[in-house]
Amino acid sequence: MFQALRVRDFRLLWSARLVSAMGSWLLVIAVPAHVLAATGSLLATGLVLAAEYLPFLLLGPAAGALADRVDRRRLLIATDLVRTTAIAGLLAPAAGPALVYAAVLVESAATAVARPAGQAHLPAVVGTGRLLSSANALGAVTDGTVRLVGGPLGAVLLLAVGFRMLVGIDIATYLVSAGAVALTRSRGRPNGAAQRPSFRAGLQVLGHYPLVRGLLPATGVFLLANAALSALLVPLAVRHLGGPTAAGLILSALGVGFLAGAPVLRALVDRVPIRTLLGGAQAATAAGFAVLVNTRSVPVALAVAAALGVSGSVVFGAPPTIVQRTVPGAALGRVTAVFGIVEAAATLTGAVAGPLLAQATGLGRTVNLAAALTLTAAAVTARTVPPAPPSRPP
Fold first, then answer.
1. Which residues contact 108 (CB under 8 A, 6 or more apart)?
2. Over the chain (394 residues), what is each successive 10-residue block's mean pLDDT?
3. Residue 32 in domain
4. 331: domain CATH number?
Protein backbone atom coordinates (compact mmCIF):
# COMPACT_ATOMS: atom_id res chain seq x y z
CA MET A 1 0.00 0.00 0.00
CA PHE A 2 2.91 2.36 0.62
CA GLN A 3 4.74 1.93 -2.70
CA ALA A 4 3.69 5.34 -4.03
CA LEU A 5 5.58 7.04 -1.19
CA ARG A 6 8.80 6.09 -2.96
CA VAL A 7 8.03 8.90 -5.42
CA ARG A 8 9.29 12.20 -3.98
CA ASP A 9 6.70 14.42 -5.63
CA PHE A 10 3.89 12.17 -4.48
CA ARG A 11 5.20 12.34 -0.91
CA LEU A 12 5.01 16.13 -1.09
CA LEU A 13 1.54 16.12 -2.65
CA TRP A 14 0.26 13.58 -0.12
CA SER A 15 1.71 15.61 2.75
CA ALA A 16 0.08 18.76 1.39
CA ARG A 17 -3.27 17.02 1.19
CA LEU A 18 -2.93 15.60 4.69
CA VAL A 19 -2.00 18.94 6.28
CA SER A 20 -4.66 21.04 4.54
CA ALA A 21 -7.37 18.43 5.09
CA MET A 22 -6.50 18.26 8.77
CA GLY A 23 -6.94 22.02 9.10
CA SER A 24 -10.27 21.88 7.33
CA TRP A 25 -11.53 19.02 9.49
CA LEU A 26 -10.74 20.96 12.63
CA LEU A 27 -13.61 23.19 11.50
CA VAL A 28 -15.97 20.47 10.30
CA ILE A 29 -17.80 20.39 13.63
CA ALA A 30 -16.82 23.85 14.82
CA VAL A 31 -18.43 25.77 11.95
CA PRO A 32 -21.86 24.02 12.06
CA ALA A 33 -21.80 24.18 15.86
CA HIS A 34 -20.94 27.89 15.66
CA VAL A 35 -23.89 28.54 13.33
CA LEU A 36 -26.24 26.30 15.35
CA ALA A 37 -25.31 28.16 18.54
CA ALA A 38 -25.84 31.51 16.85
CA THR A 39 -29.17 30.70 15.18
CA GLY A 40 -30.67 27.59 16.80
CA SER A 41 -31.82 26.57 13.30
CA LEU A 42 -31.36 23.16 11.67
CA LEU A 43 -31.82 24.81 8.28
CA ALA A 44 -29.13 27.43 8.93
CA THR A 45 -26.78 24.67 10.05
CA GLY A 46 -27.49 22.60 6.94
CA LEU A 47 -26.82 25.63 4.75
CA VAL A 48 -23.17 25.50 5.82
CA LEU A 49 -22.84 22.20 3.97
CA ALA A 50 -24.87 23.61 1.08
CA ALA A 51 -22.46 26.56 0.84
CA GLU A 52 -19.59 24.11 0.59
CA TYR A 53 -21.01 22.40 -2.51
CA LEU A 54 -22.75 25.17 -4.45
CA PRO A 55 -19.45 26.31 -6.07
CA PHE A 56 -18.81 22.76 -7.30
CA LEU A 57 -22.10 22.88 -9.16
CA LEU A 58 -21.54 26.36 -10.62
CA LEU A 59 -17.82 26.15 -11.38
CA GLY A 60 -17.43 22.48 -12.29
CA PRO A 61 -17.43 22.95 -16.09
CA ALA A 62 -14.89 25.77 -15.99
CA ALA A 63 -12.76 24.00 -13.39
CA GLY A 64 -12.47 20.84 -15.45
CA ALA A 65 -11.56 22.70 -18.62
CA LEU A 66 -9.05 24.83 -16.72
CA ALA A 67 -7.38 21.73 -15.26
CA ASP A 68 -6.81 20.46 -18.80
CA ARG A 69 -5.36 23.75 -20.06
CA VAL A 70 -2.90 25.07 -17.46
CA ASP A 71 -0.01 23.85 -15.36
CA ARG A 72 -1.84 21.84 -12.70
CA ARG A 73 0.92 22.32 -10.12
CA ARG A 74 0.62 26.11 -10.31
CA LEU A 75 -3.15 25.84 -10.17
CA LEU A 76 -2.95 23.83 -6.94
CA ILE A 77 -0.67 26.43 -5.35
CA ALA A 78 -2.97 29.28 -6.38
CA THR A 79 -6.08 27.60 -4.98
CA ASP A 80 -4.36 27.02 -1.62
CA LEU A 81 -3.59 30.73 -1.41
CA VAL A 82 -7.17 31.68 -2.30
CA ARG A 83 -8.49 29.37 0.40
CA THR A 84 -6.10 30.94 2.89
CA THR A 85 -7.58 34.37 2.15
CA ALA A 86 -11.16 33.12 2.32
CA ILE A 87 -10.79 31.44 5.71
CA ALA A 88 -9.02 34.52 7.05
CA GLY A 89 -12.33 36.35 6.57
CA LEU A 90 -13.73 34.39 9.52
CA LEU A 91 -11.35 36.30 11.78
CA ALA A 92 -13.29 39.53 11.20
CA PRO A 93 -15.02 40.90 14.31
CA ALA A 94 -18.57 39.61 14.86
CA ALA A 95 -18.40 36.94 12.16
CA GLY A 96 -22.08 36.04 11.90
CA PRO A 97 -23.72 33.35 9.76
CA ALA A 98 -23.72 35.53 6.62
CA LEU A 99 -19.95 35.98 6.79
CA VAL A 100 -19.50 32.27 7.52
CA TYR A 101 -21.48 31.39 4.39
CA ALA A 102 -19.45 33.86 2.29
CA ALA A 103 -16.11 32.51 3.53
CA VAL A 104 -17.20 28.91 2.98
CA LEU A 105 -18.42 29.77 -0.53
CA VAL A 106 -15.09 31.30 -1.56
CA GLU A 107 -13.08 28.52 0.04
CA SER A 108 -15.23 25.93 -1.72
CA ALA A 109 -14.92 27.75 -5.03
CA ALA A 110 -11.15 27.36 -4.82
CA THR A 111 -11.56 23.72 -3.80
CA ALA A 112 -13.85 23.17 -6.80
CA VAL A 113 -10.99 24.30 -9.03
CA ALA A 114 -8.33 22.34 -7.13
CA ARG A 115 -10.09 18.97 -7.02
CA PRO A 116 -10.11 18.07 -10.75
CA ALA A 117 -6.60 19.48 -11.08
CA GLY A 118 -5.34 17.31 -8.23
CA GLN A 119 -7.01 14.13 -9.43
CA ALA A 120 -5.86 14.70 -13.02
CA HIS A 121 -2.32 15.51 -11.84
CA LEU A 122 -1.93 12.29 -9.84
CA PRO A 123 -1.45 9.85 -12.78
CA ALA A 124 1.18 12.21 -14.21
CA VAL A 125 3.12 11.85 -10.96
CA VAL A 126 2.75 8.10 -10.23
CA GLY A 127 1.54 6.62 -13.53
CA THR A 128 -1.53 4.44 -14.04
CA GLY A 129 -0.19 1.12 -12.75
CA ARG A 130 -0.03 -0.31 -9.24
CA LEU A 131 1.41 2.92 -7.88
CA LEU A 132 -1.91 4.59 -8.71
CA SER A 133 -3.79 2.04 -6.58
CA SER A 134 -1.28 2.69 -3.82
CA ALA A 135 -1.68 6.47 -4.16
CA ASN A 136 -5.47 6.33 -3.96
CA ALA A 137 -5.30 3.94 -0.99
CA LEU A 138 -3.00 6.41 0.75
CA GLY A 139 -5.59 9.06 -0.05
CA ALA A 140 -8.05 6.95 1.90
CA VAL A 141 -5.50 6.89 4.74
CA THR A 142 -5.48 10.69 4.61
CA ASP A 143 -9.27 10.78 4.84
CA GLY A 144 -9.19 8.32 7.72
CA THR A 145 -6.51 10.20 9.60
CA VAL A 146 -8.25 13.55 9.43
CA ARG A 147 -11.58 12.00 10.40
CA LEU A 148 -9.89 10.21 13.28
CA VAL A 149 -8.10 13.27 14.63
CA GLY A 150 -9.63 16.39 13.09
CA GLY A 151 -13.27 16.08 14.14
CA PRO A 152 -12.84 15.33 17.85
CA LEU A 153 -9.76 17.55 18.14
CA GLY A 154 -11.69 20.43 16.60
CA ALA A 155 -14.55 19.91 19.06
CA VAL A 156 -12.11 19.92 21.99
CA LEU A 157 -10.20 22.96 20.72
CA LEU A 158 -13.45 24.81 20.11
CA LEU A 159 -14.15 24.63 23.82
CA ALA A 160 -10.53 25.10 24.90
CA VAL A 161 -9.20 27.89 22.64
CA GLY A 162 -12.23 29.15 20.75
CA PHE A 163 -13.41 29.47 17.17
CA ARG A 164 -10.89 32.13 16.09
CA MET A 165 -7.88 30.02 17.05
CA LEU A 166 -9.21 27.11 15.01
CA VAL A 167 -9.56 29.42 12.04
CA GLY A 168 -5.93 30.52 12.48
CA ILE A 169 -4.75 26.92 12.46
CA ASP A 170 -6.66 26.23 9.25
CA ILE A 171 -5.03 29.26 7.60
CA ALA A 172 -1.59 27.94 8.54
CA THR A 173 -2.30 24.50 7.08
CA TYR A 174 -3.24 25.96 3.69
CA LEU A 175 0.03 27.92 3.62
CA VAL A 176 2.03 24.78 4.45
CA SER A 177 0.17 22.91 1.71
CA ALA A 178 1.00 25.57 -0.87
CA GLY A 179 4.66 25.41 0.11
CA ALA A 180 4.79 21.61 -0.21
CA VAL A 181 3.22 21.67 -3.68
CA ALA A 182 5.66 24.40 -4.72
CA LEU A 183 8.54 22.01 -3.95
CA THR A 184 7.31 19.45 -6.52
CA ARG A 185 8.61 19.34 -10.07
CA SER A 186 6.68 21.24 -12.71
CA ARG A 187 5.28 19.03 -15.45
CA GLY A 188 3.99 21.87 -17.59
CA ARG A 189 0.63 22.04 -19.26
CA PRO A 190 -1.20 18.78 -19.98
CA ASN A 191 -0.80 17.10 -23.36
CA GLY A 192 -3.43 18.47 -25.70
CA ALA A 193 -3.78 21.73 -23.77
CA ALA A 194 -3.39 23.71 -26.97
CA GLN A 195 -6.66 22.22 -28.25
CA ARG A 196 -8.62 24.64 -26.01
CA PRO A 197 -10.75 21.91 -24.40
CA SER A 198 -14.32 22.54 -23.34
CA PHE A 199 -16.64 20.90 -20.84
CA ARG A 200 -18.80 19.70 -23.71
CA ALA A 201 -15.75 17.92 -25.11
CA GLY A 202 -15.31 16.28 -21.73
CA LEU A 203 -18.85 14.90 -21.91
CA GLN A 204 -18.10 13.58 -25.39
CA VAL A 205 -15.02 11.82 -24.05
CA LEU A 206 -17.09 10.33 -21.24
CA GLY A 207 -19.47 8.92 -23.82
CA HIS A 208 -16.74 6.65 -25.14
CA TYR A 209 -16.32 4.86 -21.80
CA PRO A 210 -19.51 3.04 -20.69
CA LEU A 211 -17.89 1.77 -17.51
CA VAL A 212 -17.01 5.27 -16.36
CA ARG A 213 -20.35 6.69 -17.52
CA GLY A 214 -22.22 4.00 -15.58
CA LEU A 215 -20.63 5.11 -12.33
CA LEU A 216 -22.29 8.55 -12.49
CA PRO A 217 -25.92 7.80 -11.49
CA ALA A 218 -24.90 5.38 -8.74
CA THR A 219 -22.53 8.00 -7.36
CA GLY A 220 -25.23 10.66 -7.45
CA VAL A 221 -27.83 8.62 -5.56
CA PHE A 222 -25.35 7.59 -2.88
CA LEU A 223 -24.05 11.12 -2.35
CA LEU A 224 -27.59 12.53 -2.11
CA ALA A 225 -28.33 10.25 0.83
CA ASN A 226 -24.91 10.75 2.37
CA ALA A 227 -25.26 14.55 2.26
CA ALA A 228 -28.62 14.49 4.01
CA LEU A 229 -27.17 12.34 6.77
CA SER A 230 -24.01 14.48 7.01
CA ALA A 231 -26.05 17.68 7.33
CA LEU A 232 -28.00 16.15 10.21
CA LEU A 233 -25.13 14.38 11.98
CA VAL A 234 -24.36 17.14 14.46
CA PRO A 235 -28.03 17.72 15.42
CA LEU A 236 -28.54 13.94 15.62
CA ALA A 237 -25.56 13.53 17.97
CA VAL A 238 -26.61 16.52 20.07
CA ARG A 239 -30.18 15.29 20.53
CA HIS A 240 -29.73 11.52 20.68
CA LEU A 241 -26.17 10.80 21.79
CA GLY A 242 -25.22 13.52 24.24
CA GLY A 243 -23.82 16.53 22.38
CA PRO A 244 -21.05 17.78 20.05
CA THR A 245 -18.48 15.56 21.73
CA ALA A 246 -20.43 12.50 20.58
CA ALA A 247 -20.36 13.87 17.02
CA GLY A 248 -16.60 14.22 17.28
CA LEU A 249 -16.25 10.66 18.57
CA ILE A 250 -18.37 9.34 15.70
CA LEU A 251 -16.19 11.15 13.18
CA SER A 252 -13.16 9.69 14.95
CA ALA A 253 -14.60 6.19 14.66
CA LEU A 254 -15.26 6.79 10.98
CA GLY A 255 -11.62 7.74 10.70
CA VAL A 256 -10.53 4.46 12.28
CA GLY A 257 -12.67 2.67 9.72
CA PHE A 258 -11.22 4.65 6.83
CA LEU A 259 -7.71 3.77 7.98
CA ALA A 260 -8.64 0.09 8.20
CA GLY A 261 -10.38 0.31 4.84
CA ALA A 262 -7.37 1.71 2.95
CA PRO A 263 -5.55 -1.65 2.58
CA VAL A 264 -8.91 -3.29 1.80
CA LEU A 265 -9.41 -0.83 -1.05
CA ARG A 266 -5.83 -1.34 -2.25
CA ALA A 267 -6.32 -5.11 -2.37
CA LEU A 268 -9.81 -5.29 -3.84
CA VAL A 269 -9.81 -2.58 -6.51
CA ASP A 270 -7.28 -4.57 -8.57
CA ARG A 271 -9.06 -7.91 -8.07
CA VAL A 272 -12.84 -7.47 -7.89
CA PRO A 273 -15.07 -6.18 -10.71
CA ILE A 274 -16.14 -2.63 -9.94
CA ARG A 275 -19.88 -3.38 -10.12
CA THR A 276 -19.56 -6.10 -7.47
CA LEU A 277 -17.15 -4.12 -5.33
CA LEU A 278 -19.06 -0.82 -5.37
CA GLY A 279 -22.54 -2.32 -5.04
CA GLY A 280 -21.50 -4.50 -2.12
CA ALA A 281 -19.87 -1.57 -0.32
CA GLN A 282 -22.94 0.62 -0.86
CA ALA A 283 -25.24 -2.07 0.54
CA ALA A 284 -23.00 -2.50 3.58
CA THR A 285 -23.00 1.26 4.11
CA ALA A 286 -26.80 1.36 3.97
CA ALA A 287 -27.04 -1.31 6.65
CA GLY A 288 -24.60 0.58 8.85
CA PHE A 289 -26.47 3.85 8.43
CA ALA A 290 -29.73 2.17 9.45
CA VAL A 291 -28.18 1.12 12.75
CA LEU A 292 -26.31 4.38 13.37
CA VAL A 293 -29.33 6.66 13.04
CA ASN A 294 -31.52 4.55 15.33
CA THR A 295 -29.21 3.69 18.21
CA ARG A 296 -29.13 5.66 21.45
CA SER A 297 -25.94 3.94 22.60
CA VAL A 298 -22.66 5.75 22.03
CA PRO A 299 -20.59 2.52 22.04
CA VAL A 300 -22.86 0.98 19.41
CA ALA A 301 -22.70 4.17 17.33
CA LEU A 302 -18.90 4.14 17.48
CA ALA A 303 -18.65 0.48 16.45
CA VAL A 304 -21.01 1.00 13.54
CA ALA A 305 -19.24 4.20 12.48
CA ALA A 306 -15.94 2.30 12.32
CA ALA A 307 -17.54 -0.31 10.05
CA LEU A 308 -18.99 2.48 7.92
CA GLY A 309 -15.49 3.88 7.49
CA VAL A 310 -14.30 0.60 5.98
CA SER A 311 -17.13 0.42 3.44
CA GLY A 312 -16.85 4.16 2.84
CA SER A 313 -13.19 3.76 1.84
CA VAL A 314 -14.31 1.52 -0.98
CA VAL A 315 -17.32 3.61 -2.01
CA PHE A 316 -15.30 6.81 -2.26
CA GLY A 317 -11.94 5.36 -3.32
CA ALA A 318 -12.71 2.79 -6.01
CA PRO A 319 -14.41 4.99 -8.67
CA PRO A 320 -11.56 7.55 -8.95
CA THR A 321 -9.06 4.75 -9.62
CA ILE A 322 -11.25 3.38 -12.42
CA VAL A 323 -11.68 6.85 -13.93
CA GLN A 324 -7.95 7.66 -13.75
CA ARG A 325 -7.04 4.37 -15.41
CA THR A 326 -9.67 4.57 -18.12
CA VAL A 327 -9.76 8.19 -19.30
CA PRO A 328 -6.83 9.74 -21.24
CA GLY A 329 -4.79 12.22 -19.24
CA ALA A 330 -5.53 15.17 -21.55
CA ALA A 331 -9.27 14.87 -20.81
CA LEU A 332 -9.07 13.68 -17.22
CA GLY A 333 -9.67 17.10 -15.69
CA ARG A 334 -12.95 17.58 -17.58
CA VAL A 335 -14.21 14.07 -16.88
CA THR A 336 -13.31 14.48 -13.21
CA ALA A 337 -15.27 17.74 -13.27
CA VAL A 338 -18.35 15.90 -14.59
CA PHE A 339 -18.19 13.68 -11.52
CA GLY A 340 -17.62 16.77 -9.39
CA ILE A 341 -20.78 18.39 -10.74
CA VAL A 342 -22.83 15.27 -10.04
CA GLU A 343 -21.34 15.18 -6.56
CA ALA A 344 -22.09 18.86 -6.01
CA ALA A 345 -25.68 18.62 -7.27
CA ALA A 346 -26.42 15.54 -5.17
CA THR A 347 -24.71 16.90 -2.07
CA LEU A 348 -26.29 20.34 -2.36
CA THR A 349 -29.73 18.77 -2.76
CA GLY A 350 -29.22 16.45 0.19
CA ALA A 351 -27.74 19.17 2.40
CA VAL A 352 -30.79 21.40 1.87
CA ALA A 353 -33.51 18.75 1.60
CA GLY A 354 -32.36 16.82 4.68
CA PRO A 355 -32.76 19.67 7.19
CA LEU A 356 -35.93 20.93 5.50
CA LEU A 357 -37.53 17.50 5.66
CA ALA A 358 -36.31 17.02 9.24
CA GLN A 359 -38.00 20.24 10.32
CA ALA A 360 -41.21 19.26 8.53
CA THR A 361 -41.49 15.56 9.42
CA GLY A 362 -39.00 14.94 12.22
CA LEU A 363 -35.33 14.11 12.54
CA GLY A 364 -35.77 10.37 13.04
CA ARG A 365 -37.99 9.83 10.03
CA THR A 366 -35.65 11.82 7.77
CA VAL A 367 -32.45 10.00 8.69
CA ASN A 368 -34.16 6.63 8.21
CA LEU A 369 -35.34 7.72 4.77
CA ALA A 370 -31.78 8.72 3.89
CA ALA A 371 -30.50 5.33 5.05
CA ALA A 372 -33.03 3.60 2.78
CA LEU A 373 -31.96 5.80 -0.14
CA THR A 374 -28.37 4.61 0.38
CA LEU A 375 -29.53 1.05 -0.26
CA THR A 376 -31.15 2.26 -3.49
CA ALA A 377 -27.70 3.34 -4.66
CA ALA A 378 -26.57 -0.30 -4.61
CA ALA A 379 -29.49 -1.22 -6.87
CA VAL A 380 -28.60 1.61 -9.24
CA THR A 381 -25.01 0.36 -9.40
CA ALA A 382 -26.23 -3.12 -10.35
CA ARG A 383 -28.34 -1.55 -13.09
CA THR A 384 -26.06 1.05 -14.65
CA VAL A 385 -22.48 -0.21 -14.21
CA PRO A 386 -21.68 -2.76 -16.92
CA PRO A 387 -20.01 -6.03 -15.97
CA ALA A 388 -16.27 -5.73 -16.37
CA PRO A 389 -13.21 -7.64 -15.21
CA PRO A 390 -11.12 -6.26 -12.37
CA SER A 391 -8.99 -3.26 -13.28
CA ARG A 392 -5.67 -5.08 -13.24
CA PRO A 393 -2.80 -2.63 -13.57
CA PRO A 394 0.31 -3.31 -15.64
1. 51, 52, 53, 54, 55, 56
2. 84 91 80 74 72 75 79 92 90 75 87 86 83 81 72 77 84 94 83 55 76 88 87 77 75 80 83 91 92 87 90 87 83 80 81 83 85 91 81 52
3. yes
4. 1.20.1250.20
